Structures are given as C-alpha cells and as structure tokens.
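My current task is to audit a protein record that another person submitted. I have pasted the whole thing underneath without changing anything:
***
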Amino acid sequence: MERERAAMDWVEMLNIFELQRIFYRPRPELGDLGVDVTLHDSTAEIAANAPRYRRKSSTFIDGIHDVPEDQDMAPAQLYSTMSGRLFHSGRIAIVMVGLPARGKTHICVSLARYLGWLGVKTRIFHLGDYRRATVGKGGIVPEDYFFPDASPQSVILRQKILKKCREDIYAWLNHENGQVAIYDAVNPTAAGRRALAKELAKHDVQTLFIESFVDDEAILRENARNVKISSPDFAGMDPDEAAKLYLRRIDMKIPVFDTMDEKELNYIKMINAGQKFFYNNVSFGYLSHRIVFYLTNLHIKSRTTYFVRAGVTTEEDSYKADAPLSEEGMAYAARMSETLLKHREQERAALVEKGGNAVPLRPLSVWTSTRCRTVQTADYLKNKGFKVRQRSQMSQINPGVCEKMSERAIRHLYPEEVEKHELDPYHHRYPRAESYHDLAVRLEPIILELEREQSDLLIIAHESVLRVLYAYLMHCATMDIPILKFPRDEIIEIIPAAYQNEAKRVHIPGVDPKITPGSPEDISIPVPGGGSGVASGNLSPMPGISSPAEPNVVVERPPEKVINTAAEMVADRQNDED
C-alpha cells in the first residue's frame, strides 16, 4: 500500500500546468458561446473541450481565459521590461490544494484577474481540462483514477495527463516569458507536494501552495450547488440533497487527502472561505506579498455587482461644479432604484421556482463618489434603509484644461495633444488632466474592497469610473476601456462565477438612453476616429463606440438580456473532480 501510494505521489510531482494558446471561431450551430478550438504553434497539441478558452472578440464577454497580445500593457501596469516579468520576482508557480467544491477554481481565477490587472503575465492551468481532452468528449476516467492504489491502466492515464501539464508549464515559463503559472488541481498528498516543489526548484521556479480548506457544511453545500449539480445525474433532485450526494461522491473518489502542514514549503491556507488565514514562509519577494495581501481581501461567497450612472444635474457642463440633481435626475434615481429592487425580487422568485431554497435576498450595499449627483442618486435607496457609502476615489476622470471646451475648440487649441490621444487614448492625458491609467491606479483600493465585499453591491458613478471597474471584473483589453459606453437607461449586472463572470443588462423603463445636455458628464474631448474634420461637440469624457451591450446594433431592449453565461462552462465541468 505504501509503495503504491509513493508511486501516486511521484506521479503528482509531474502535474505542472498551462493550457495552450488557442483560438476559436464561432460555430452558429453551437449558439453564441459555441466554439471550434484550434491550436497555436507555441503550445502543446491537446486542446481542452471547454468554450472559455478563446481569443478575445468583444468587450462584453469575460476575457479572463483569453490569450492577450504580447505587446498589450495591462490596465494598472506601472512599467514594462524586456523579459515581460515584473517586480524582480522571477518565475512563480502557484499550486492549488484542496478537495473539489472548496472554491479552488474561484480563487485561482480571481487571483489571475488581479495579477493580470497589475501586468503580471499569468496563466491558469486546469488539470481537469487536460483530463477531458485526453479521454475525449463524453469520456469518463476509471472509477479508481483518484485512488492511491489505482490499477496500472489508471496510473498510465494519470502519467499521460500529468506529463502534458509538465511540458506545457515549462513551455509557458521558458519560451513564452510567463511569470506566474497557476495550477488548479487537488494535489492531495504531502509527499506529492514536496516532490513537486523540488522538481520546480530544479528549474529555478519558486512554488507557492494555496490550500482552500472548508469544513463548514453550509459553505460546502453552497459551492456544490453553485458549480456542480447542474449535471443530469442530479436532475429533479432537491438542491441540498444533490449537494450532499455530490460531496459523498468526492469522499469515495478521493479517499486520501493530507491538509498542508509541511513546514519547509511556502504555503497559504484559507479556511472556510477566508474566515481564517494562515501562511508559512511566503518570503520570496514583493510579488508574493502582494499575492498574500490580495488573498486576505478575497472570499468565495457568491455576490452580485450592479453598475449604474448618476442622474443629470442642474448645472452646465462642468467638472469642478458640484451641482445637485435636476428634477429629471431625481425622477431617474427613483425609477432606477425601483427597477433594481424589482429585478432582485424577480431573480429570487425565479431561483425558487427552479428548485432553489427560499432564502432571503442578500443585503445590498451602495457605493457612490463624494460628488453631489451620485450621492443624491443613492438617496432614494438610502431612505429605504439601504447602506450607502461615499468613496472619494470614485470621482470621475479629471479633464484638465479641456473642461467646458467643445471638441472643435480642443482640436484647434491642442492639435498635438489630440494626435497623441488618438494614438493612445488610455495612457494619454491632456494638460492638467488624468488618463485612464491614472484612474485605474487610483481605483486599486476600491478594487480590493470590491473583492472583500460580501453583500450585493450597487455602484453609482461617472461613466469613466464604471468603464475601469467593469474592465477589471470582465477582464477587458486595455485599449477597449476608453470606448466602453454605459447607456443611462440600463443597469449592468455582473454575477461572479467560478470559471468566468456573467453579465446582464437590465433595462430601466421610461429613461432616455442618450446623454442629456447640461450634465457635467458631457465634457467634450476628442476620441479616436474623430479626426475627420467634422467635430461632434457633444461627446462624454474619453467616450467611445462600443459598450457592454452589443455595439452599434439597434434592438428592442428586453427587460433583461444575458450578455454572457457560465452555463456551458458548468456543464462542461460537471464531472470534474480536479
């Protein structure tokens, strides 16, 4: 028995990561998210049969698993290097540890989102994707696949899958200048983890283990309900009973699991979704401490974020003036608030109708900037008893000398600045103004608090702030951020999921989607593509042509439209035990 267990531990040593660069082309017969996967020459030949691995094609799909262009600067990246690696931190392998339904995938996806936002070249390697690619669509692994005393056939299959991971991790770190590779798998035994750390050290790769340990039955059931029980095996069952059955299957399939206490290894242990937090060593550079700090702000509980714009004011176009809402702005605030409250009740009713528990709605918190128009837009909800917080970092982007100037005047007075702006609208700043990069750096404390927030969250802010926060949650490309648009007659809803976030548009009835003249949001600044000689004179700060909604398409807006869904990702991984 000990010999067989040692053999399994040796196999575990091999499980190092990366899923190849892949591209996709839409396949209408599979629907909006259907993809046909092909491979990039720089990676291995296995392609996971999961639709989330595809090149970015739009701003309204979560891009966390996209392959970025090599020359892209991340939104909050402060500098660049020839190697592409930052903070003098070398190469790091983050190895997830924990049984299924413990939130490992949520943690590694969230961490990859944050590191990518900072400009750290990060890629996630889900062992389950390799297994599914190896066994083929619809295939299953042997019953003893996860057992320490598995049959020779199962051991050979494990070796094949883990060998592919090992090849891909070294290809990513050595040949594609990767800096952080995140390996998403169970990694159940102490001996296997020690062997893995030694193997990586031989290749000058530092290893950080992150264990998600959960013994709270309520958290386990919620995780199982949210991710796993969409399998046909559980069709028609009570969600709680289905979750219990799934957790029993885990115990049967993975009978041996050693929680982390290896004193010589670098590891972080998160207990019960962040209720307790331990770390051992983790002292190999600035980046490791940033990772620890981020994880202390992270939780794995489900929570929804809503984005809306403030109502219009009585003042003419002005950044400096802090005017109150007009009557139209007050009416908008009431209409928007009632629409949101009704939508939350409808979503809860729909969940109960599908067999979910009739639990109360999660608390709703409201964040605004300190500007009068955002504060007054939230007053309707505040008067109904909802908690409202004012955040000074959420003030709109500063237009500098361009305040109150028409686009025609800006082009006449600052032609060189306009030319620079059209070349790089994200990083360029007009005289005495802010760039979107400045705004992204300013908003980092808000992003960390957003990760820490456990209540549902409504953010009322200027469109420039919404662009940056939306880009973080949906992993938009840097150059897409200045051209995102948020119609005034819509609430954007973002629901976190384990593999990628899900976004919806909720229509606010009776509201003009166009920007109302007289709003301080109407400061006119030229944008790329505006140099035809015909100035509009009526553009919002750093505005653009695409949005979280489908760009340039005039449609009848339904009360609610799904922009992106994680349903196919859940179905694809329904039997995933990694």
Remarks:
- The chain has two domains: 2-56+81-301, 305-567.
- Residues 1-57, 516-547, 549-577 have pLDDT under 50 and may be disordered.
- The longest strand covers residues 206-213.
- The CA atoms of residues 382 and 388 lie 6 Å apart.
